[in-house]
Amino acid sequence: MEPDATFVLYDIAFASPYAENASAPNPWKARYALNFKGVPYRTEWVLMTDIAAVRKGLGLPACRKFADGTDFYTLPVLVTNPKDTTSAIGDSFDIANYLQATFPDSGAGDLFPEQKLNYTLPEGMQSLVPLSERADGIHAEYARFQENVDMAFSVHAQLTAHGMKWDPEVADKVKAEFLRRVGLSEWEQLGIHGEAREKLKESLRVTLGPLAGMLQRDGEGPFMLGKRPSYADIIVGGWLRMLSKTLPEAEFGEICGWYDGVFGKLHAALQERFGDVK
Asked: Residue 107: which region, alpha, beta or left (left: phi > 0; alpha: psi -120 to 50)?
């Protein structure tokens, strides 16, 4: 099947210019995968306050639940035929699976080459942010890897809260929604400063240590399979994109320098090869 130029990727609109400030990790996983496969598409930007309505309008249920049991509507969504909304795919991992199955030899090749992805988390690590769960068994090792990577970054997401830039039209509503999700009343409570911030950064550095080892195992880099990129790199790369846009420049520079610079090299390589926002 040849790539179809009518594909539409629905992504979260942060502050204008949207393409420059786009930083949600899961839409970036989908964008990297589309660019990896060389599939023509265009981006439809959706304000945070409109996500639930857009997703429902495309006939997609919420793919996660909050701790209180309410639905969590989020993006990305990929519509492969705008004339048929039943073609909508509402999960970044499902989008990658679809692209690999539909365009197996396109672009940079196989998104899911065989490799060991035995990254594990410290015992007891738990996120307040709901993460997607999978039961279909497709590319199961990659799915488990994504679950662990998402958890590793999510539990340190407080580092990014005050660095998120929203469209002024909806900024107050978005902040109120974030506070509701975590059960807080004041925006300042979501920030983290001083010694507490340094401790959380150190926790992130330690948590990412095994990932750094995976990026170093080939000895060549910048990807886990050396010069060959895969969806495992994209999973990590989506989060690095978020950090690059929401952390102070100096702090992101620190992360890029950890473990002989493996995260900086990975981020730069993914942005150079697959980072176009279309």
From this structure: left
